[in-house]
User: What shape does this take?
Amino acid sequence: MKNKLLIYACLLQVFLFLCIIVGAQQKVITPGEVWPDNQGNHIQAHGGGIIKVKDTWYWYGEERRQGLDSNYRYVSCYSSKDLVNWKFRGDALKLSDPDHLGLKWVLERPKVYYNNKTKKYVMYMHLDDRSYKLASVAIAVSDQPDKDFKYVKHFRPLGHESRDIGQFIDDDGTAYLVFEDRPYGFRIAKLSDDYMDVEKEMCLIPQHMEGGAIVHYKGLYYSIGSALTGWNPNPNKYATATSLEGPWTAFENIAPPETNTYGAQSTMLIKVAGKTDTTIIYMGDIWKPKTQWDSRYLWMPLEIGNGKLWLPKPEPWLLDVKSGKHKIQKPKD
Assistant: This one.
């Protein structure tokens, strides 16, 4: 009996320890480090996008974990109340070759929009063949944020080539798609009312850039992107305009150019508007092409305002989504 009680006690301790590990709440965002979800696994949401529905944030991205079936492409979904602690909701999309694209077909940079009128979640993604000649966007739709997305179609937006895509939702709720149209530059286009098509081009920015992202802050639009260097990082740049139609200013570096944006590539700008302040977050990917499952994330609050934008050196930091305030966690002496 004593041995049984001892075994039960040991098992209970192990169980409580695992509960603490899995259920522990993180307080700090640490750029470039492994970012565990609620199950203790590194978050797999690469090239991703984030939306907020009521009080919940949803993070979608390319699922790159080891052991995936190579016949499919996966889009993961995570949810959070604070942008720090993330719950894995599962694969929102598991897609086999949708249009006979052939071996090593491509699904990249998924972005999801929630349409208040239709109550649908509409996913846009870059869809391509292995040679990147298709250069199109694809759409999948679901009634739920985290599962059962069904492939609908692929097309070239407004007849233009589209590779890297980004999303932008303005303060008035209008939804836009940002897409790279080689060799012309990148385009900003308004979605249709049901989000099932690209309706109107706002402008073409004649800059050859990937990872396009936009934020509207204190009367100015800030647009950022990275140069066309494949997996290799480069100096990300930004420009501003008072309207999405432009004109846009000349592009400038967002960080010291010799850092190559601290090894990251832009994918989105997140606006956290709280009760007393607003934080704009640079959301970037640190790609590891040979070990893609280990690719990391660089999230940092930007120094932004009066037409200037700067990405500080990455450091651990804290975020309060209710107030909109952030704080850099300085190392202790």
Remarks:
- The chain has one domain: 44-326.
- Confidence is low (pLDDT under 50) at residues 4-23.
